[in-house]
């Protein structure tokens, strides 16, 4: 179910009979046709067990199910929106950044310590994004929110990308991430660059970076 970017802060989705999508609750701006919006008590895909896991991981953002026949325009809080199309790979993104996503995508939750070991856990603390993140896998589209617009940086083998953890939005593909530090004596005495922590992503995929260090 593709999204059409209306402008930097609004997207339009086509809803067709027999298919459903999920969106953040209250994100509908306008619609045409015969479309219904139902609160999704399970917070998306995966049933009751998956819902409990997301709540334990603090990755349970209120969602609604969108079904019917028509078109729906989505936006939330005036945030910039980036549409990401997945072709079988996995997107890693915080639940509160999800604006809407295709109902065919498989939703899950991942412990960040499994990517980068202990430093992966430290990354969660530094970014303020916690120790878990939401995953979406399969063929479909996802609309995510960010501050100040988003750029997509490709990650290719042997060419790691370094990102300010506060500017990180999401990534997809076969990508490893770890937190690196640049702490030196200047940082210790308050004369550092202010970029003491960096998120290093390597492998094959892409990372999305917002033009701000502000969380949603």
User: Would you tell me the overall average pLDDT?
Assistant: 81
**CATH fold description:** Double-stranded beta-helix
The CATH class turns out to be Alpha Beta
- How many separate structural domains? 1
Integer-rounded radius of gyration: 18 Å
Distance N to C terminus: 25 Å
CATH superfamily: Mitochondrial biogenesis AIM24
InterPro entries: AIM24 (IPR002838), AIM24_sf (IPR036983), Trp_RNA-bd_attenuator-like_dom (IPR016031)
Organism: Streptomyces lunaelactis
Protein name: AIM24 family protein
Structural overview:
The protein is mainly beta and 216 residues long. It has a single domain (3-210), classed as Mitochondrial biogenesis AIM24 (Double-stranded beta-helix, 4-Layer Sandwich). Helices cover 12% and strands 54% of the residues. It has 3 helices and 13 strands; from the N terminus they run ββββαββββαββββαβ. It has helices at residues 47-56, 117-127, 185-188; strands at residues 3-7, 10-15, 21-24, 28-40, 63-74, 80-93, 98-102, 106-111, 132-146, 150-155, 161-163, 168-181, 197-210. Strands 1, 2, 3, 4, 5, 6, 7, 8, 9, 10, 11, 12 and 13 form a 13-stranded antiparallel sheet that branches. It is globular, with a radius of gyration of 18 Å. The mean pLDDT is 81. This is AIM24 family protein. It comes from Streptomyces lunaelactis. InterPro entries: AIM24, AIM24_sf, Trp_RNA-bd_attenuator-like_dom. It holds the Pfam family AIM24.
């Amino acid at each position: 179910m593709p999204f059409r970017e209306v402008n930097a802060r609004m997207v339009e989705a086509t809803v067709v009979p027999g298919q459903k999508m999920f969106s953040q609750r209250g994100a509908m701006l306008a619609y045409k046709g015969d479309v219904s919006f139902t609160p999704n008590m399970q917070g998306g895909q995966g049933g009751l067990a998956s819902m409990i896991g997301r709540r334990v991981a603090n990755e349970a953002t209120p969602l609604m199910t969108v079904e019917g026949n028509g078109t729906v325009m989505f936006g939330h809080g005036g945030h910039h929106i980036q549409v990401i199309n997945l072709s079988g790979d996995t997107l890693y993104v915080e639940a509160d950044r999800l604006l809407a996503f295709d109902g065919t995508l498989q939703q899950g939750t991942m412990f960040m310590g499994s990517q980068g070991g202990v430093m992966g856990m430290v990354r969660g603390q530094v970014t303020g994004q916690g120790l878990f993140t939401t995953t979406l896998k399969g063929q479909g589209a996802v609309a995510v929110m960010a501050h100040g617009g988003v750029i997509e940086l490709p990650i290719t083998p042997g060419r790691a990308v370094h990102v300010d953890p506060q500017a990180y939005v999401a990534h997809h593909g076969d990508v490893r991430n770890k937190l690196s530090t640049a702490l030196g004596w200047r940082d210790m005495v308050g004369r550092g660059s202010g970029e003491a922590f960096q998120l290093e992503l390597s492998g094959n995929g892409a990372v999305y970076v917002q033009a701000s260090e502000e969380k949603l």
